[in-house]
Design a protein that fits this description.
The chain has helices at residues 2-8, 13-34, 36-51, 57-72. By secondary structure, it is mainly α. Helix 3 packs antiparallel against helix 4 (57-72).
């Protein structure tokens, strides 16, 4: 039965591969989104942008709050 089911489901192999790749990408994005060191680096870069005058106070505060919410899970 294993050989027959293997042959019958062979056309689905590319679909399973695409699903696996999509799952791996989603896991990597989730890790990067919630990794505290990445969030701290983004906060530091945001602060540098603000101090250089590339961001308005409103834009800085909004983005900073989003990053802090991610960092502290609020």
């Amino acid at each position: 039965m294993g050989l027959i089911s293997g042959v019958l489901t062979l056309p689905l192999a590319p679909v399973r591969g695409v699903v696996w790749v999509a799952d791996q990408l989603a896991q990597a994005a989730d890790r990067e989104l919630h990794d505290p060191s990445v969030i701290r680096a983004r906060l530091a870069a945001l602060n540098e942008e603000y101090e250089a005058g590339h961001l308005s106070t409103e834009a800085f505060e909004g983005e900073e709050q989003q990053l802090l919410d991610l960092l502290y899970g609020c």
